[in-house]
Write a sequence for this structure.
């Protein structure tokens, strides 16, 4: 799934080891932050690059893995 632009709630929950309802809450918070910058957001999904930047300080998943 790493080749898709957006992460769905189940993927976020699995990546962070949290419940699905909590993952929805995190996605909602990140989408609110993106909306303030003028970006269009989709409920229950988050941009993969933005997610990794917020949680790991990296731009891509491959950078986090050291590849």
């Amino acid at each position: 799934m790493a080749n898709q632009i957006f992460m769905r709630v189940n993927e976020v929950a699995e990546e962070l080891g949290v419940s699905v309802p909590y993952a929805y809450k995190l996605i909602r918070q990140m989408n609110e932050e993106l909306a303030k910058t003028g970006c269009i957001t989709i409920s229950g999904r988050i941009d993969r690059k933005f997610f990794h930047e917020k949680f790991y300080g990296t731009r891509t998943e491959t950078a986090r893995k050291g590849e």
The chain has one domain: 6-56. The chain has a mean pLDDT of 87. Strands lie at 6-8, 45-47. The helical segments are 9-16, 20-36, 48-56, 61-65.
